[in-house]
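User: Hello! My lab partner asked me to get a predicted holo structure for this protein. The small molecule is 2-acetamido-2-deoxy-beta-D-glucopyranose, SMILES included with the sequence. Please write out the C-alpha cells.
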Amino acid sequence: YPPEDGLIIYEMDIKSHVSNRFAKNVVVSKVRNTNESVKEAIFTVVLPETAFVTDFVMEIDGKSYKSIIQRKDEAKNIYHEAKLRRKSAGLVETTTRDSNEFDVSLNLEPKSVAIFTLTYEEMLQRVDDQYELVLNIRPGQIVEKLNVEVTINESRPLKFVKTPPLRSGKEISKNDEHLKPSADIQVNSMSAFVKFSPSAKQQKTLAGYLATKIGNGLSGQFVVQYDVERDPQGGEVLLQDGYFVHFFAPNDLDPLPKHVVFVLDTSSSMYGRKISQLKDAMMSILNDIRMNDVISIIEFNGDVIVWDIKSEKPVGVQSIGDFEDPFSTLSKCEIPSPSHVNEEIISKAKSVVQKIEACGSSFIIGGLETALYLIKLEQQRNAKKEERRQPIIVFLTDGQPNVGIASTEEIVTKLNFGNNKAPIFSLSFGDGADKNFLRKLSLKNWGFSRHIYEAADASLQLQAFYKQISSPLLFDVKFKYDSDVTEVTKSYFPIYFEGAELVVSGKCKDSIFPVGVNCCGRKGPLILKSIIENLIRSLERLWAYLMVKNLLEESKSVEVNTDLIKRATELSLQYSFVTEITSLVVVRPNEATEMNSGEYVERG
Ligand SMILES: *[C@@H]1O[C@H](CO)[C@@H](O)[C@H](O)[C@H]1NC(C)=O
Ligand SMILES: *[C@@H]1O[C@H](CO)[C@@H](O)[C@H](O)[C@H]1NC(C)=O
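Assistant: Hello! Below are the C-alpha cells for the protein in complex with 2-acetamido-2-deoxy-beta-D-glucopyranose.
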C-alpha cells in the first residue's frame, strides 16, 4: 500500500525513557517526497493530555530548524510578524482534550527528505496498582521501518512489566488476543527494556483487527504497564542534587467505611442513550459497593428527588428557596435517610435505578445541596461511634447549572466544610456538559472531574472511574518536611485511594531526615515513616513538571491567580514546557527565505 501522493514515511522511531515514573518520549518520523511535484507533508503526534511538549526539531534535506518556547501572547506576535514579512512560521498550540494533537505541515520539494523530531514529557500516574505508559502510533501509512523502544529505570525492583493488547484509543474494548503486540520484554530487577517493531505485514494485520483502513497502517496505542515493589508504610523519598521526590502508596491498610451519595442528572437532555448508559453503569457500580457502606441516591431534573431505597419510593424535596442557607429548608422536609448496604439493599437500589426517567430541566444546585445535607445527617448520626465514614459525592451531569444561579460552585463550596466535608467527583457526560464549571467545582471540593465520552463504552468508562475511588484508605494526608525543604509541590491530600500513589517533590539541602506522613486511617490518626534513598538520576525535571502542573491547577481554583500564572510561566520557559500559557514557535531562519521549499502552516 504505497501512499497515493508519493510522500513516503520510510522510518518511524518512538523512544521512551522512563525513570522514577517520569517519561521522556521522542518521536521521529522520516518522510521522502517521491512525487514529481511539491507535496504537503503532515506530521501528527497524538499525546496524552497530561504530557508537556518540550522540544521540536525539523530537518529538511540536512538543514535543521529548531523551535523556541515563548509566552503565549509573545508567540502570537512573532507568528504574525513573521507572516507579514512573508517569512514562514509555524505555531503549535496545545488544545485541551483528553489527548492533545501536535500537528505541523510543510511543503516538500520532489526528492526532498524531512525529518521531524518531537519530544514530550509526562509523569506516569499510578492507577489500579500500576503505571501505564501509552504511546500512540499513527503514521497514517504502512511504515517500512517502525520501531518502538521503552526503557524503564526505577529505584526499586519492578514487580511486573506487561504489554497488553493494542488499543484503538477510542473505545474501551475487551482484550483482543489478535491485538497482542508480542513485544520483546527484558526485565532486569530495577530496569526493563521493551521493544516493539512490527513488520509491514504485521502492521497490516494489526490495522485490520483495529478496524482501521489497512492502507492507513497501524493506528492505535502501544501500552506498557508496570509496578514497583514498595515500602508498605510511609513511602520512599528519593534524593539527588538538591531535589527530592517522595512516592507514597501504602497498601497494608483497611479501607475506610464510606457514605457514597450518587447525584444523578435526569433532566430531559439525558433522554435516550445517555440515561440507559447511566443505568448500565449504576447497575455494575452497585455490584462493587462494599457491604456495610452507606449509600444515597439523589436525582435532579426540575426537582430534586431522594430515593428511599428500602421502599423503592421517590421522595420529592420541597423546592429549596434560600440557596445560601438551604439546610434550614431541608431540615423541615421528610428526607429518606441513607441506606446501610446489604444484599437486599443492593437489589432494591438496582430496581430504583431501573425506575429513573429523564425529563425536565436541571436543578444542579438543589441536587448538590441535598447531597451535602444528607452527608451532614449521616455524620451526626454517626458522631458517637468510633469510626468515621468517609463521605463521597459522585456527581454526574450532561448539562450546565441552568436553573437558578450562576455562582453554583461558590455556594456549594461554602456549604462543604468541617467534619462533613466531602470530596465531589464530577463526571461530565457528552459534549454539552460545562466541563469548566465541573473542573472548578471538583478542584475546590477535593475531588477531580472526568469526562465520559458518549460512545458505546460509556458505562465501562463510568465503571472504570468508580473503581478508582471505591477504596479510600486514608484521609487528611499531610506530608511534613524539615524547614530546610523549600519549593514543595502540593503536600496536602484530603483523601488517598487504594491502587493510587501520592507524589510530592521539592528542593532540599544535601540530606533530609526520614519524613513522617500524618494521616487518618480506619482506626484514627497515623504517622507513617518514610525511607530515604539516594539516587543516580536527576529529579529536577520531575520536580519542575509537578510544580507547573500544581500551579496551573491551583490557578483555576482561586479568584486571584496572577502570581501563580507568573511562576508557572517562568518555570515553563526555564524548563521548556509547552503548556496552556506557553507556545512552541518554529521560525525558519532568514537565509531560508531564498529556498522555495518549506512553508509551515498553522493547523488545528
Ligand atoms: C503525485 O501526486 C498526485 C496527486 O496526489 C498523484 O495522483 C500521483 O499519483 C502522485 N505521483 C506519484 C509518483 O506518487
Ligand atoms: C536503565 O535500564 C536499561 C534497560 O534495562 C539498562 O540497560 C540501563 O543500564 C539502566 N540504566 C541505569 C542507569 O540503571
